[in-house]
């Protein structure tokens, strides 16, 4: 029988507008209007879950579109390449976050060490 767009969105944990956005981006198909209403199937729920999981891993919608195409084509080499690109981007982000954390820890120690003069934390962000 299928489900309406609102039931699909609710089942997948997204909004109706998110479903429509993914349709506009070509990530999710738009079923024909049977009996005047579009009906979505379990495969659409699976695809929405895939999109959300891939977003959680940091893939862009463009990369997710490519992964969805690879899903049908079994191109493991390209899937691995996309994963390697994502891992490299995550490694860079982790390094940046660790550097920021280290800098903030140093400022917090400096702030704690003395009550005189301007706060090192505020001074660092001012200039």
Automatic annotation (TrEMBL):
Gene3D superfamilies: 1.10.1660.10. SUPFAM superfamilies: Putative DNA-binding domain (SSF46955). The keyword Transcription applies. SMART domains: HTH_MERR. InterPro entries: DNA-bd_dom_put_sf, MerR-type_HTH_dom, MerR_fam. Residues 1-70 form the HTH merR-type domain. The keyword Transcription applies. Pfam families: MerR_1. Keywords: DNA-binding, Repressor, Transcription, Transcription regulation. This is MerR family transcriptional regulator. It comes from Sphingobium rhizovicinum.
